[in-house]
Each structure stands twice: as structure tokens, then as C-alpha cells.
Description:
Blueprint: H1 8-18, E1 27-30, E2 36-41, E3 45-50, H2 55-69, E4 80-84, E5 94-98, E6 103-104, H3 115-126, H4 138-141, H5 150-154, H6 161-175, E7 184-186, E8 195-198, E9 201-205, E10 212-214, H7 217-220, H8 222-225, H9 232-239, H10 244-269, H11 279-291
Antiparallel strand pairs: 1-2, 2-3, 3-5, 4-5, 6-8, 7-10, 8-9
Helix pairs in contact: 3-9, 6-10, 10-11
Amino acid sequence: MESIEIDEALVRWLLRQQHPDLAGLELREVAGGWDNRMWRLGEDLAVRLPRTPRAPALLRTEQRWLPSLAPDLPLPVPVPVRVGEPSGRFPATWSVTRWIDGEPADNMPITDPQAADTLARFLAALHRRAPEGAPANPIRGGSLRAGSHFETWLAAIPAGDLAARARQVWEHALAAPEWADEPVWLHADLHPANVVVSDGTLSGVIDWGELCAGDPATDLAAAWVLLPAGAATRFFDAYASADDATIQRARGWAVLRSLVLISIGQNGEKGLPGGKRTWLPAGHAALERVLAPPR
Length: 295
């Protein structure tokens, strides 16, 4: 995908060929995610085209599962409304989705404490038993030990008290009993660039390519990664169904996600490929929240 120039002319051509009734709408490029380029289409739609080798499979996951999940979710999500099929000019699937208004949280952090209730309602609705055939991802939906590379990510912060406290939370999480119930649906990639914010609160959840079934602790890390300081307790009170072991694992996931954000943010500061400068302050803020003493 990376060798193909994805420009307005290509997007317009693809629409004319496969969805001509949409081809006349206004088209303008907007900031995309890690794996996809994105164009806003008219006022209510977006076009997502994959740009990495793994991206087409992620789009297929969204196309297959998100339309059936979305009606039960209490926040807007970018449901695919049209599917683009591979062609000679663009040899991969692509999607036309609902446009979700708001600013990504790595640009505009959540500040309203009531977002804890919103996020809890959202995840409680999502975390229902997944059906047979749901996508499996042992790294994101399974054990914390699976492919975490914690030591590599820990190197993003200097050795010292902060690193020692991060390691302590991590090891405490590893010691917690693992998830033994049926796997539930997970977003599996809840970090600031994958949610949108309006008026200081959570207003939508985007980028569902990692959707899979597994341990809800993976998503519950968002209590620290997304919410303002001190909101985690309110979140877990509202979510209501997380036991102590699940919260322990969730804190471990939150430490790991914070370190990943910091590392990728540092790469952005250095101008390295794949770096995201806005992730650096988001990662530091998340790590500070998850390492703070509970209120």
C-alpha cells in the first residue's frame, strides 16, 4: 500500500467506479490513523484507504463485525456503510464509514470527570460475550505476558523512581489471576488517538481494526489512559463488574500503554518514521495517572 499514491484523484476514481452515487460529494483529506489514510466525504461520511500491509485485514474486521455491534453501543462509532473491493488500480479493500465529529484525545484531552460514566456505560455495553468465530488476538486480548515486550517499552523513561514504580505495578498485574470467564468483545486499542472529544468529554470511539475477543482488562486500562486524574475510581464504580484481579491487570495494561505512547511520541519528537509527537504528552499524563496513589 505504501508504494501507491493515495490522493484525491484516486479516491474520487474509486468512488466513481464502485459507489458512483457518492462520487459527487465534497472530498477533503483529514488526519488518518496509523494504518489508514482518511478523507472526509460530504458532511456525514469518511473514506478510509489502507496504507500499511496489515491494514486491509483490519478494515475487513471492521466491515465484518462493527455493523452488528454498533446499534447496542451508546457512543457514535464509524460504522462501514459501503465496502470498496480490490481493483487493478488499488489492490486492497477500503471503506466508506460514518463520520464521527470530535477532536482526537491526543490533541484535546478529556477534562470532564463525567466522562468516567460515559466510558463505563460504553464498555459495559461492548463487553458482552463474543460469539464463536469472533477475532482472536492473544497479544491484545490474552495474557499480559504475551508479546508485551515490557522491558523494551520501559526503556522509554529514565531509570529511577518512576521506572521502579512502573515496574512494580506491572509485576503486581502479572501476579493477578488471569481471566477465566468466556471471552468478551474488546475494542483492544483504546488510546487517545482512537477516541474523539467534544466539550471536554468523550464523544466517539474510532479505529476498530483490532476488535477481538478476550480479557476486558485490556480495555479497562482506559480508566487511566483516557480519563482525567482521579476519575478511575468513579469509572470502576460505574462499570461495576470488574473484580480486584481484573483491575490489577487493567493497571498493568495502562502502564504498558502509557510507555508505548511515550516511546512513539519520542520518535515523533526525533522525526522518525511512525512517530507521533502528540502521543508524548498523552503518554506521560497517562503514566502519571496510573502511578498516582488511588484517591
